[in-house]
Task: inverse folding
């Protein structure tokens, strides 16, 4: 039998201490505090961040967004994409190594595994050992904590779409709806499978970012690099030995850089698409250099140009601000500022106008021509507002229905509106008109302050 697949050896990353390890754990803490903490924050009398799909409303602190605000989601995706391009052009797979959910949860799951089974060598010995009571309880305990953590993660995820306090009450009574059960289990299974078992396979084979990252790199992109000119030829030696007398480079061939790599690559072979730029090999190599008394930086974050031309760190950093990076940054900040201004100037309500399809135009008592419209008024404010309706665009055009409409906080309401014009006010055909909608508070006050004003265009039909 000839296997079509290469045999995969299980990767047991070794624990490491250093600058980049601390940065990774700082990002783990920050991202998880945000993810698990946001659903529990309150804003006024509601959950601060809630995506209420049933009511088609999305609450983000003081913002109340409707499906009609989809443009902001588009802007968010564009900002995310440009940020990814910018960070990649500057420092390679910075996102992958420090903030990607796959990396973050893998770090957490490996930490849990380490608490039960020990560090790399102990885990490898335990895997090779025959089954015993010690092995059973360590493996079972690890799996149980993994499952509980994954379930908590799935529960928190669903808490962004179903009020998490209601979801917590449902836990006690097992009153989950079918969709809540499905998504909690689905997200829990995804977390458990990806971070517990697939780990580096997701980064190497499933994530498309690893495949097209090289298109965003250039010779001035900061990447994890091995200084072959300094390190080769590599070889073991006594701590007291002079490497020059032995015709050896600085690399002692300890292979610790391979042992700490979460994807199991040897960075000494050069840049590889599997490298996620986490810097674990940099930390462990610096620790080894300290122990043998050599200068740090055999493995470091640098650029291809800096390595080839022997630039200093200051020269390398200055080259980061090249035209490509400046263009990415300018476009990114332009979009961020534009979105911020748009949100700042955004009216606290929206109005959709729909013509009544049952009656396009009709003649009513008094010989007037009437058109019927349906207005959907969406109040995006956190308080009840009164909306005053006016129309213009045709001689004698008047509003034949109520002109004052009240809509409760963060709710929407459909209103039927009749507009009339004298029979001979305009020739037959379609005529543009405008609705003027003012939002006021408090309710019932004629001189109440105006908090928003919209103009919406539509047409008035006059039959032949």
Result:
């Amino acid at each position: 039998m000839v296997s079509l697949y290469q045999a995969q050896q299980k990767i047991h990353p070794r624990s490491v201490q250093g600058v980049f390890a601390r940065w990774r754990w700082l990002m783990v803490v920050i991202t998880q505090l945000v993810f698990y903490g946001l659903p529990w924050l309150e804003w006024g009398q509601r959950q601060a961040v809630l995506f209420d799909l049933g009511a088609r409303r999305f609450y983000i602190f003081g913002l109340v967004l409707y499906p009609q605000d989809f443009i902001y989601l588009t802007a968010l995706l564009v900002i995310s994409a440009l940020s990814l391009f910018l960070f990649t052009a500057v420092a390679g797979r910075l996102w992958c190594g420090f903030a990607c959910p796959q990396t973050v949860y893998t770090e957490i799951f490996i930490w849990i595994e380490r608490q039960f089974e020990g560090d790399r060598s102990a885990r490898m010995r335990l895997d090779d050992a025959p089954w015993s009571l010690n092995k059973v309880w360590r493996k079972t305990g690890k799996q149980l904590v993994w499952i509980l953590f994954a379930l908590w993660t799935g529960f928190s995820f669903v808490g962004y779409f179903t009020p998490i306090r209601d979801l917590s009450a449902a836990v006690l009574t097992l009153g989950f709806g079918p969709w809540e059960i499905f998504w909690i289990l689905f997200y829990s299974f995804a977390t458990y499978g990806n971070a517990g078992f697939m780990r580096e396979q997701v980064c190497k084979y499933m994530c498309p970012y690893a495949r097209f990252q090289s298109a965003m790199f250039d010779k001035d992109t900061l990447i994890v690099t091995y200084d072959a000119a300094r390190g080769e030829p590599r070889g073991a030696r006594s701590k007291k030995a002079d490497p020059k007398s032995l015709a050896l480079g600085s690399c002692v061939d300890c292979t610790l850089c391979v042992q700490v790599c979460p994807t199991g690559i040897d960075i000494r072979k050069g840049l590889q698409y599997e490298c996620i730029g986490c810097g674990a090999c940099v930390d462990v190599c610096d620790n080894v250099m300290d122990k043998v008394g050599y200068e740090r930086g055999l493995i470091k974050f640098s650029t291809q140009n800096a390595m080839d031309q022997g630039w200093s760190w200051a020269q390398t950093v200055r080259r980061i601000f090249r035209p490509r990076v400046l263009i990415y940054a300018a476009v990114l900040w332009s979009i961020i500022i534009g979105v911020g201004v748009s949100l700042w100037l955004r009216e606290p309500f929206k109005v959709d106008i729909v013509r009544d399809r049952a009656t396009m135009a009709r003649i009513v008592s008094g010989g007037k021509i009437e058109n019927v419209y349906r207005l959907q008024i969406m109040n995006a404010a956190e308080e009840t507002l009164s909306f005053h309706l006016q129309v213009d665009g045709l001689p004698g055009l008047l509003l034949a229905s109520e002109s004052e409409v009240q809509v409760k906080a963060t709710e929407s309401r459909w209103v039927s509106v009749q507009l009339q014009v004298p029979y001979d006010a305009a020739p037959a055909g379609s005529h543009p008109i405008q609705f003027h909608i003012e939002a006021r508070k408090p309710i019932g006050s004629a001189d109440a302050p105006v908090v928003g004003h919209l103009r919406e265009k539509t047409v008035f039909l006059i039959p032949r």
Summary: The CA atoms of residues 168 and 233 lie 61 Å apart. The chain has three domains: 19-67+89-214, 216-325, 349-462. Residues 133-158 form the longest helix (26 residues).
